[in-house]
Amino acid sequence: MKHILMELPYAIDALAPYISEETLQYHHGKHHAGYVNKLNTLIKDTEYEDMSLEQIIHQSSDAIFNNAAQVFNHDFYWKSLSPTKTEPSALLLGVLEATFGSLETFKEAFATAGIGQFGSGWAWLVVDEHEKLTIQTTANAHTPIEHNLTPLLVCDVWEHAYYIDYRNDRVKYMDNFWALANWEHASKILESKEHLKLSTTTVPFCNNPDDPMCEYLDEMAHEGTTSS
Predict the structure, then answer these.
(1) Sign of the four-CA dihedral 51, 123, 79, 171
(2) CA–CA dist 128, 80 (Å, integer)
(3) Where are the beta strands (DSSP E) in the chain?
(4) C-beta of residue 53 within 8 angstroms of C-beta of residue 71
(5) Which end of the chain has fewer CB atoms at under 10 Å, N or C?
(6) Domain range annotation of the chain
(7) What is the pLDDT of residues 1-16, one digit of tens each?
(8) Mean predicted confidence (pLDDT) in 111-116
(9) pTM for this one?
(10) Torsion-angle region of 62 (φ positive above 0: left; ψ -120 to 50: alpha; else: beta)
(11) 108: Cβ contacts below 8 Å, ≥ 6 apart
(12) How confident is the model over 185-200, as pLDDT tens digits?
């Protein structure tokens, strides 16, 4: 299948003044589009050509993995932003409060994680199949779905996400993230209960198709889920 650049779910100037139209032109129109185009080039006439992004992420490595994961991460980032103010649902707010003590405490911890991520990467709020929330950071193209975690919210802390608007001031960028955070999207994911199906997923978890042990390990994982 040919992967397509996701359309922004809002006008290109809708996130201003926190994220400018110029930033979106470069970030979405150049960086994100570049990952999509490169991925399509790399997978042409390969075993990955007919796979979904998630399947490619779980089964590939190196350049193919990097570009597929960056397409997924950017798709999720745009959905994590909203030009209109949103609030966590009662369910999400309750789980955040139970986990972190308060919404404000969560925001502080999330911002600290994003600011502290060395170099390029991502700050995530994720939920596992036990409905446990955690804050995680990933470097470069890495993504929580590699480990069968369900993302609820993400902030891109690669410099190209904020340098035009904030130069090197990642702290200010993270502070302003809360004016755009799409709590409605995060709440819908939590309430969908899709994360509860992770323990029975049949997506291969071995991330090196050149390793002969991968096929064996994936078969063992599949047998374990289908026999339960």
Answers:
(1) negative
(2) 18
(3) 121-127, 133-139, 150-156
(4) yes
(5) C
(6) 21-199
(7) 899 999 999 999 999 9
(8) 98
(9) 0.87
(10) left
(11) none
(12) 999 999 998 888 765 4
